[in-house]
Amino acid sequence: xxxxxxxxxxxxxxxxxxxxxxxxxxxxxxxxxxxxxxxxxxxxxxxxxxxxxxxxxxxxxxxxxxxxxxxxxxxxxxxxxxxxxxxxxxxxxxxxxxxxxxxxxxxxxxxxxxxxxxxxxxxxxxxxxxxxxxxxxxxxxxxxxxxxxxxxxxxxxxxxxxxxxxxxxxxxxx
Length: 174
Description:
alpha/beta, DNA binding, DNA-directed DNA polymerase activity, PolIII_chi_sf, DNA polymerase III chi subunit, HolC
């Protein structure tokens, strides 16, 4: 609560379009080799793009991953993402004492310091989600991942947050 005004957490689910792998996802990227599912490769690339956009806006980001393997794949992808627009980042527990603008982790405790944006790549809504003003989540375009995303949507709704969706097939990112 700031100055007597309660700030409600905003959750934005990006509905991924049908898979049309970009050149980046097709390449021998860590994401492509760590996860052969093209829908997830696209989602990871979008997560990196959104982290980069938040960094440009001077927002601190926590990327929450399902496990250590996914966290390392996202870390490697960010090292290779857009050479002209480096995104300072580190895995949780590594990097400078003051932290870097983008932190990547996978435990149930969340970020080491206060951050504005949570990008969730895990199968569950993390228990610390309401500590963020803005949450970004994804609905991959396949039946298995849609079912998991529906459950996360219910979990967020149970937390009393404001939920929105954006269909990237009809409303792509700028």
